Amino acid sequence: MRKPPANQTNAARCIEKTSRGASMTTTNTYSNQTIDQACHAQGARGTWREQALSTAFVCLGPAYALSWVEMGLTLMTGPGEPIAALIASRALVGGLYVCVAFRLQWARWITVVLGFASVVLVDPMLGAEWRAFPAAALVTGAVLVFKLAASIFLLSPNASHRTR
Q1: Looking at the domain assignment, is residue 103 inside a domain?
Q2: Total structural domains in the chain?
Q3: What is the residue-level pLDDT of the chain in tens, covering all 164 positions?
Q4: Could you tell me if residue 116 is inside a domain?
Q5: Does 10 fall in a domain?
Q6: DSSP 8-state secondary structure symbol assigned to residue 123
Q7: Angle between helices 83-101 and 105-122 (to 10 degrees)
Q8: How far from 70 is each of 11, 48, 51, 75, 111, CA to CA, in Å?
């Protein structure tokens, strides 16, 4: 084997080797076992992301539908608030949930904050509502459970990333 000149760079030596027939490939830098492990770990993470996001949507859907039922029960007892305000608030929340479905970060965080705030502010009043109108208290409690679950799943850091 011939010794390369002392002043020749590594790149020049590699070019000389490839011109003599030696191949310089970098496709198998890592072992196949390492690549398989990395692909498997990414697949598990992608599965969790989709499950967290899907579960959050499954919780937001019934929460939104039950909020309309809750509005109907409120109207049965006598409108304490203007009907237009009740409808507008539910339409705005529905728009917010659509933005969450499009995976907009600001909508996700607003939904999380509103979910936790509604649980903290409404939960103490469930006892009084139970004494006044038990059916409405059941619906309100179910809405709170769904909002809390959705907020927890949307809060998971893996729920925010696109998996496509």
Answers
A1: yes
A2: 1
A3: 556 566 666 666 656 665 565 554 554 444 445 545 544 555 555 566 678 888 999 999 999 999 999 999 989 888 788 899 999 999 999 999 999 999 899 999 999 999 999 999 999 999 999 999 999 999 999 999 999 999 999 988 665 555 44
A4: yes
A5: no
A6: G
A7: 130
A8: 73, 32, 28, 9, 19
